[in-house]
Amino acid sequence: EQNVPNPFRGAPSITYSLPENAPQASIMIFDLSGKLLKTYKLKERAGQLRVNQSDLGKAGMYLYSLFAGGQEIMTKRMLVK
Fold first, then answer.
1. Quick check: helix, strand or coil at residue 54?
2. What predicted TM-score, i.e. pTM, was given to this entire model?
3. Is 76 exposed, middle or buried (0-12, 13-18, 19+ CB in 10 A)?
4. What is the C-alpha separation between 9 and 54, in angstroms, rounded?
5. For position 76, what pLDDT does the model report?
6. Least CB-packed of 27, 42, 67, 70 within 10 Å?
7. Positive or negative, the Cα torsion across 42, 44, 45, 51?
8. In this structure, what DSSP letter does residue 8 have?
């Protein structure tokens, strides 16, 4: 799902859920040039991930993608104030 709040300052949360048969999954955060900034491995099939603004850097737009079994499931945008 979309991170809440968006735009944010501090630590937004991303709610996620995976199918029962989903292989290992992670949420990866990228800058707009495509540089990988942070990978969060998901240990639960469903839950909320808290992202620290300090992992991202300065204000601006970032992309985060949910990957499962090496395949991209979805990508969303987040804005840092």
1. helix
2. 0.88
3. middle
4. 10
5. 96
6. 70
7. negative
8. B
